[in-house]
Amino acid sequence: MARGGAALTCWFFQVEGVSKKRRGIGGGGGGGAQASSSSRKDRGLAVDFKESQVADFEDLEEDKFLNAVVKVYCTHIAPDYGLPWQKQRQHASTGRQVLARGIECDLALLSVENEEFWRGTEPLQLGRLPCLQDSVTVVGYPLGGDTISVTKGVVSRIEVTPYAHGTSDLLGIQIDAAINPGNSGGPAFNDQGECIGVAFQVFRSDEAENIGYVIPTTVVSHFLNDYQKNGKYTGFPCLGVLLQKLENPALRESLKVPSSEGVLVRRVEPTAPASKVLRKGDVITSFDGVNVGCEGTVPFRSTERIAFRYLTSQKYAGDVAQLGIIRAGNIMKVQTVLQPRKHLVPFHVEGGQPSYLIVAGLVFTPLTEPFIEEECEETLGLKLLAKARYSLATFEGEQIVIVSQVLAHEVNIGYEHMGNQQVIKLNGTAVKNIHHLAHLVDNCKDKFLTFEFEDDFLVVLDREEATTASSDILKEHAIPAIRSSDLSEPYVEAEQEIKKPNDDFGDSPVTNYEMGVDCLLWA
């Protein structure tokens, strides 16, 4: 999307440009033309094959923006979360990567090292947010052919939308133009040839048709400005609070809210800066001077309203926001720093390769959403799955560390059938994360390594025997290292203390993506 800068190459890929001429097949002749050996008549329409059936569209404004659309061929290799020391088979796809990668907003910033690529290209102009019923043209390389594809439709809706790829909620444009696999990452244009967004997802249902979504230029600009400002993508910040709408008059009266505005704070993330100024039971009535309605919306453009989350998504990581709140009937003003959410069970793995530690054949790894998807929810057990869906991190860097499998060896006899169980303590010390566990193992001087798992299940290993057996286990299973490379770095003790036991999870999902309750929302 932007030109310049050093290229960061994650995969080998080839870029293919679009030809400068757009040609289409058009109908010729009139209803009164005579049929002959070089023409035919079909259902009242005559076609003269002596005339050229190829129309020249060189002068069309569309040529300019079609020239700026390219197809990216790439080969990607996904990690194997069950065997975290190796990767899965490689796959070819048409996609994009990689000066910066915005997981939440499903965007990536690319550059090309070869300067020849840029010659003769014209950058697209970003347009403003469209209005309802405005025409929109989507360009890309979807399934069904190899050449560029153009589909048209209108803007049906503009609202805060769940982004399935990043499980976040950001502004989205709903359109009725067809978006198919391969369209993702392609631009959407208005009638003036300005880019008004990026195609990225569809809603598939037996009850609905032609519901596609476009990432608007407001989100694209935020992504680009973030990269320009920080030299990297830092993310979209939020308050880190679970809110409830206050549409019921009796509920507002009980909370001493004098008017039909405000949303109730039900839960505050312990790691969010807002936890220092907000409490459960507070009512947020304004954000940076903008009043928040009792249905959880704020003014948008002239006569529209939009979800409260829109205001927080316009900020950048580290920005300060002023909140108007009502606490036990008292009207107050508080300030808080906004930061991106940090999930206890992350939806994506930083660096692309999962961390792991092998101790006497026990394979320890952090619980992540990609691991859950690969292993299938049924194999995890209800308690572990409930933690993944309902628990919040209580301190910086907290992880749920599990044994994903046991590599059979005589040193771990009796434990070989373990799998997908959370380790709670090692020799009486609570495990904070996978790096902390590696640190505890490395610095243990006791005769035994005593691991405490969920439901008081114990695993006791002779420390010296476990160390001796490691080389045999690695050799037998062709494993390159006993731990992932990130765990070889020195462990730095976190300053924050654990605020509550890890099994004290709440009663609400940690994302709006799984909420399913219209009166509740994260912001």
UniProtKB/TrEMBL annotation:
<keyword id="KW-0645">Protease</keyword>
<dbReference type="GO" id="GO:0004252">
    <property type="term" value="F:serine-type endopeptidase activity"/>
</dbReference>
<dbReference type="Pfam" id="PF13365">
    <property type="entry name" value="Trypsin_2"/>
</dbReference>
<feature type="domain" description="PDZ">
    <location>
        <begin position="224"/>
        <end position="292"/>
    </location>
</feature>
<keyword id="KW-0720">Serine protease</keyword>
<keyword id="KW-0378">Hydrolase</keyword>
<dbReference type="InterPro" id="IPR036034">
    <property type="entry name" value="PDZ_sf"/>
</dbReference>
<dbReference type="InterPro" id="IPR046449">
    <property type="entry name" value="DEGP_PDZ_sf"/>
</dbReference>
<dbReference type="InterPro" id="IPR041517">
    <property type="entry name" value="DEGP_PDZ"/>
</dbReference>
<dbReference type="GO" id="GO:0006508">
    <property type="term" value="P:proteolysis"/>
</dbReference>
<dbReference type="InterPro" id="IPR001940">
    <property type="entry name" value="Peptidase_S1C"/>
</dbReference>
<comment type="similarity">
    <text>Belongs to the peptidase S1C family.</text>
</comment>
<protein>
    <recommendedName>
        <fullName>PDZ domain-containing protein</fullName>
    </recommendedName>
</protein>
<dbReference type="InterPro" id="IPR009003">
    <property type="entry name" value="Peptidase_S1_PA"/>
</dbReference>
<dbReference type="Pfam" id="PF17815">
    <property type="entry name" value="PDZ_3"/>
</dbReference>
<dbReference type="Pfam" id="PF13180">
    <property type="entry name" value="PDZ_2"/>
</dbReference>
<dbReference type="InterPro" id="IPR001478">
    <property type="entry name" value="PDZ"/>
</dbReference>
